[in-house]
Amino acid sequence: MTTYDDNSLREDMVAVCRRMNASGINQGTAGNVSVRNPKGFLVTPTSLPYDMMRPNDLVQMYFDGSYEGERRPSSEWRFHRDILASRQDIDCVLHCHSVYATTLAVHHKTIPSFHYMTGVAGGTTIRCARYATFGTQALSDAAIEALQDRLACLLGQHGQISLGKTPAAALALAIEVETLSRLYVQALTLGEPPILDDEEMARVIQQMKNMSYGQAPDLDGVNDVARRKQ
Description:
It comes from Rhizobium lusitanum. It is built from 6 helices and 7 strands, in the order αβββαβαβαββαα. The protein is an alpha+beta fold. It has a single domain (6-209), classed as Class II aldolase/adducin N-terminal domain (L-fuculose-1-phosphate Aldolase, 3-Layer(aba) Sandwich). The radius of gyration is 18 Å and the shape is globular.
């Protein structure tokens, strides 16, 4: 992270929490969000409805598991801590119980590359982590494993996790994971869909990387890309 503004970050986190519920990917007090900061990380408090949450309700935590303030951190603080500690490429962890992602998670189904947008999570699949009791180190370990080289995963019989550099980016990915989950559930009603091969998914992921760097996609090298009229 570059310049740090504690108040702005807290406001952004509360806004994203409320957007989680407004978008339909989360319900009630389920789900939680964390963001890295210079001290360690901020995390949403346990059992506080988002519409009642204020910026100063967010809990300052440290990577040794200690925290400041009167409110207790989310029961899932362990996987927030461990993911942020192990993934220097991201600064935000978002967890929610979106309906279609959770539908797949209760069947321990990994999302394959049935659609090219599966690549938004960084690979050819969106894995489903093995089940472990919520709030435990075992769940954190399972999430870390499923998130290897990925930006999102499902949690067996639980929900989903999406990662990002900012709360807004993590939320956007979580919504995309839910959309893909819904498409996959609906596609399965017609039978197992065809799967894009790894070679094609490598091209897709490269296209996505090019676009994230502000470059026009031109994998064929023909320079036939959209450009401003001179």
